[in-house]
Amino acid sequence: MRLLHTSDWHLGRSFHRVSLLEAQRAFLDHLVDVVRAEDVDAVLVAGDIYDRAVPPLSAVELYDRALHALAAAGVPTVMISGNHDSARRLGVGAGLLGRAGVHLRTVPAGCDRPVLLRDEHGDVAVYGIPYLEPALVRDTLGTDRADHPAVLGAAIDLIRADLATRPAGTRSVVLAHAFVTGAAPSDSERDITTGGVDSVPAALFDGFHYTALGHLHGCQTVGERLRYSGSPLAYSFSEEHHRKSMWLVDLGPGGAIDARRLDTPVPRRLARLRGTLAELLADPAHEAHTDSWVEAVLTDADRPYEPMAALAKRFPHILSLGFDPGNRPEDPDASYARRLAGRSDQQIAEDFVAHVRGSAPDDHERAVLRDAFDAVRAAAAGTERD
Hints:
By secondary structure, this protein is α/β, with parallel strands linked by helices. It is 32% helix and 23% strand.
């Protein structure tokens, strides 16, 4: 049985205000091409289909287009809802979609009802566990605690009970959307901490022949049979060094595993650059990033004039600019009130400019500040007379 494991599409998400709709369309086209070229028997999508509970129409249209393409390919698809999805909205029409070969698992009560697949080696039972919000599902699953290990453990117990009723030799596959202890997160996942516990132990999934995980955006292997596919696109600069991919998993007789990574299309490389403005503009080592999406952090002691405009001439796709000067004297013991004591509004404003920019205002800037304060005082005096 050949399985294609993907997750965290986040349809509708942008990257620092840059639309990723075309890149997401290219990925989904690539996915369908892989399904055909690699003779895939089933597609597993481990949650976060959308980026938010009420996705934009363009994202819904893209999702609809992908479902039609997968159904037309004649390959069963099993999908679960993630913490970014609205389970109720995503699950609308699940029964009808199932008849077309697209099997949605969005409610906890259905996690022990597998999609049954079959090949020459026998049955494969595919169970989908949607993202479980502990406070909302603890009663449904009959747990005493409202945390992730408790509710996910209860769902897995239901799956094990069902699996025990299946014919001997049935191979088991589980989809789950969770943070498994020991895996590496990035900056672009939404925190799922509840009750102080957000991660679940990998041992929960012991005994299953393959577990297709979603939620973390870096492709990684937690165990031979426990893997994250990661997101197909980068959604934060913290993913600069991620290799975006999907898992192609061959599940052989007796549950033998052979898994390999298939790269996904990269719309544009990411680069995180750091240095003074002059260094970033002149260093030949940065020539490779002129076509990248760039996050720049300037270390100039004094904030340069219009640095974004200057950087955009060399890096036309720069998206983020930060400042981290490293040579400012600090006085951590001086309280804010003590620093302001006995100082005029003009002096406080000049100190603020010096703190933010790294250098004191010049004579012209002092005059501008003085005129501004005079105008405010005049307006305030006029109001009092009225």
